[in-house]
């Protein structure tokens, strides 16, 4: 990431030593109410939205000099519900708590923040300090008890919740590699995996009994960057399977408990001579989709390791960088058989997952950074480097909502309240929250 050089060596701990006296924390009772409140979606934008938008438009976006001397024309339109602007650099990652109205944002200022999403303005919950480089990935465990954050200097920190999520205390940390590229958390159990720039992949357990982080596996089958991995659901807790992808064109299925390689797909042997640097991976049950930096899309049966189909997503593209598949997402609706594929070119390709034919192409004027279907609905959320967030009906391709307000690209987003809201991670250092309905 280009932000690796941002704020190297800067001290981000000053001014936060007594944050309890400086910031408004979420009330414990309020958190408890939100956990069990099924009417959370009743929140509506206030009547003074215009005033809120005006405040967003005039603070923090271009504060490096006299606006009269700006050479760029900036669209100051904004239809967001509120904003969070504590970060001093690009916001690289955002992810939501599974039960509470709360998100974590990690940025190029080497800090992660926890803040609420149900109140206007948001309430500051806490700050994750200790990172020496950009915080680029993380996640919550399925039960919401633990939080993992990771930075570009190889440090992972794990925090445990107390007081219903009001307080987070450090549980442990790891520094096994020189740079962490991603973190993925098991969808049900207290395991997480991460990949490194030299190709290694690691799996750890958050062990409550020993109150420690226990290494389950470390794998060194990739020769270049390990760019992504997914846990594959097993029959029971005795199965722990991870599939990882690499810049070297390999795909590896791991038995995490033994460290054994169940299968390894090689570029020349298994992909018929196509050596694609794999950059994205998503699974749906026991079927896996992987996307390459060269536009190659392959579908794998994870049970057998067999490649079911391979598709070159676009033809007649002059710049090969435009082909890179930056986002993949399966539609989990049983009546809508679609896989969404997002490219640097700005194309959102919707493939029929039964015949693997291109059903629709939704065009955006800049690179797609992330795609995600709302639960098991056919409604697709997508973000772009053009600074906009989109909501489409994937069945028809109809554009249902466009969120504007960022002056730079959206690098990540989190879907909240069953899709009613979306919170973003902006390259200009601001997070916006949009009401999409």
Automatic annotation (TrEMBL):
<feature type="compositionally biased region" description="Basic and acidic residues">
    <location>
        <begin position="1"/>
        <end position="19"/>
    </location>
</feature>
<feature type="repeat" description="WD">
    <location>
        <begin position="84"/>
        <end position="115"/>
    </location>
</feature>
<dbReference type="InterPro" id="IPR001680">
    <property type="entry name" value="WD40_rpt"/>
</dbReference>
<keyword id="KW-0677">Repeat</keyword>
<feature type="repeat" description="WD">
    <location>
        <begin position="128"/>
        <end position="169"/>
    </location>
</feature>
<feature type="region of interest" description="Disordered">
    <location>
        <begin position="1"/>
        <end position="67"/>
    </location>
</feature>
<dbReference type="InterPro" id="IPR051179">
    <property type="entry name" value="WD_repeat_multifunction"/>
</dbReference>
<dbReference type="InterPro" id="IPR036322">
    <property type="entry name" value="WD40_repeat_dom_sf"/>
</dbReference>
<protein>
    <submittedName>
        <fullName>SQT1</fullName>
    </submittedName>
</protein>
<dbReference type="Pfam" id="PF00400">
    <property type="entry name" value="WD40"/>
</dbReference>
<feature type="compositionally biased region" description="Acidic residues">
    <location>
        <begin position="20"/>
        <end position="57"/>
    </location>
</feature>
<keyword id="KW-0853">WD repeat</keyword>
<dbReference type="InterPro" id="IPR015943">
    <property type="entry name" value="WD40/YVTN_repeat-like_dom_sf"/>
</dbReference>
